[in-house]
């Protein structure tokens, strides 16, 4: 059920936003993104031979290469036609939490570079207030030298007493991002998460912070696959649509 809802969201988003005239496409990270690449491949070699695909990290790079698509870099293409990415959670105003996979720095670069930024996820990620279902907190990429100081700032100054350094699984030590940095997960209470932009701005001002996994005022639309086979589309103007894909 979950995988099918991810597929429905990804396919619908690609159908509506990856058009023949789009030649530079950003590919995000997460468990919904393989379905994005799958649908793009289905558009055919005729369209894809003239396109370049920009990855946000190792996973999306591998998906692009394995699909036989043209791999590019944001250094070469600083303006992207459309970027499609997953999310850990999306609120009613299309603010979202990203960084569960520790790729949010590169994801935000590609989101900002895109003329159109679109989110795809399953129904569990569709919430009114961030932090409702995604409990680890806001991912924060921080240079290793500063992690202890940033943790202290979060604990005592910014209202996240349970912020912790993310530790690796099956590896001794912390998670290290593709950029060689550490990741802090900082949960905030519901009241603070009603205004994620303010939290993002305050964290970003801390010396040592590289990027914050709060994406505010960036997405054009968010696509959520539902249990009943429909797809809910939330737009940046507050409009909400529901469609029933046929394939």
UniProtKB/TrEMBL annotation:
Gene3D superfamilies linked to this entry: 3.30.70.260, 3.40.50.1360
Keyword terms: Isomerase
Transmembrane segments: none
Catalytic activity: aldehydo-D-ribose 5-phosphate = D-ribulose 5-phosphate
EC number: 5.3.1.6
InterPro entries: NagB/RpiA_transferase-like, Ribose5P_isomerase_type_A
GO terms for cellular component: cytoplasm
Pathways per UniProt: Carbohydrate degradation; pentose phosphate pathway; D-ribose 5-phosphate from D-ribulose 5-phosphate (non-oxidative stage): step 1/1
Gene Ontology terms for molecular function: ribose-5-phosphate isomerase activity
Keyword Glycoprotein belongs to the record: no
Biological processes, Gene Ontology terms: D-ribose metabolic process; pentose-phosphate shunt, non-oxidative branch
Family: Belongs to the ribose 5-phosphate isomerase family.
Record-given protein name: Ribose-5-phosphate isomerase
Gene source species: Amanita muscaria (strain Koide BX008)
Taxonomic classification: Eukaryota, Fungi, Dikarya, Basidiomycota, Agaricomycotina
